[in-house]
Amino acid sequence: MKILIADDSRVMRQIVVRTLRQAGFGDHDLIEAADGQEAFDMATKDQPDLVISDWNMPGMTGIEVLRQLRAAGNQVKFGFVTSECTPEMKTAAEASGSAFFIVKPFTAERFDEVFAPILG
């Protein structure tokens, strides 16, 4: 499977990649986007099976990326790994079709719990 990791922090993208590997999902094709617009473009062009997105990114926020993908008919599995978590954010994410919401800091065990049903 192809997994798109979208976060404006290169270090955080590396942490997500490392945690995916620790959770046993390192054999998937991992691609990265450095902002929201790039995430939208890559989700459209590269057709990943899963998008793991930060909420706050320049250009386009993660929720804007999700909403624009859904508006374009793209049903890729999409969820958030973010440092912010309010009930309003979770509600907006779920209403827009988010498959998961992981709050930083996270663990390999949390990734396994969330991604095992998605990635098998």
UniProtKB/TrEMBL annotation:
SMART domains xrefs: REC
Keywords in alphabetical order: Phosphoprotein
PROSITE patterns named among the record's database cross-references: RESPONSE_REGULATORY (PS50110)
4-aspartylphosphate PTM positions: D54
The keyword Phosphoprotein is assigned to this record: yes
Annotated InterPro entries: CheY-like_superfamily, Sig_transdc_resp-reg_receiver, ST_Response_Regulator
Organism domain of life: Bacteria
Annotated SUPFAM superfamilies: CheY-like
Domain Response regulatory: 2-119
Protein name as annotated: Response regulator
Organism: Actinoplanes ianthinogenes
Underlying gene: cheY-3
